[in-house]
């Protein structure tokens, strides 16, 4: 009889514990633009496609570990508004937010190239930007009053991955190899943070 009670108690404890939520850390990757908002465009290439491809690759690279969960603000050609994105982010209370974008200037083809990082006026945002600068060819780190940075309570950075109207940047960001390498660098940044 005692063995049956012990077995029942063990079964109950196991089933109860399996439904107990474990506090998980979240990392949010925001793929800029989407839907009708293409972002920067150069011929057949668009910012919205580049950013979502890299965001999905980051999520894929992080599926096998259980220290944190990568959440995407979008994983398709949808357009959640900036308000919807930041509301979701603030509800999750993630460890960090990385918003992916692609730069462009008015020239048809530009000599400007490299990554630019925009930050909040917080130590953790600056720390995250410094980690990014160690992995990427960062041209500048600058504080900016952008919705994603201003309205997000978690440490956040907005990363312009390169210039779509610079041949070298464009070729790299639109290639499968380049996108996988960019995603891998962000994965290393997340794991080292």
Structural class: alpha/beta
**Gross geometry:** globular
Number of helices: 7
Q: Tell me the fraction of residues in β-strands, as a range.
A: 15-25%
- Cα-to-Cα separation, first versus last residue: 53 Å
Helix percent reads 40-55%
Largest sheet entry: 6 strands, mixed
Q: What is the β-strand count?
A: 8
Mean pLDDT: 91
Order of helices and strands: HEEEHEHEEHEHEHH
Rg from C-alpha positions?
A: 20 Å
Segments where pLDDT lies below 50 for 5+ residues? Answer: 3-21
- Strand numbers in spatial order across the main sheet: 4-1-5-8-6-7
Describe, in plain words, how this protein is organized in 3D.
The protein is of the alpha/beta class. Helix content is 45%, strand content 22%. The chain contains seven helices and eight strands. It has a six-stranded mixed beta sheet, sandwiched between helices. It has a two-stranded antiparallel sheet with strand order 2-3. Strand 2 and strand 3 form a beta hairpin. Helix 4 packs across helix 7 and helix 6 packs across helix 7. The N and C termini lie far apart (53 Å).
Summary tags:
193 residues; alpha/beta; 6-stranded mixed beta sheet; two-stranded antiparallel ribbon; disordered N terminus
In short:
Strand 2 and strand 3 form a beta hairpin.
List the helices and strands and how they pair.
Layout lengths: L1 H17 L6 E7 L9 E2 L2 E2 H15 L6 E5 L9 H11 L3 E8 L11 E5 L3 H13 L2 E6 L3 H5 L4 E8 L3 H8 L1 H17 L1
Parallel strand pairs: 1-4, 1-5, 5-8, 6-7
Antiparallel strand pairs: 2-3, 6-8
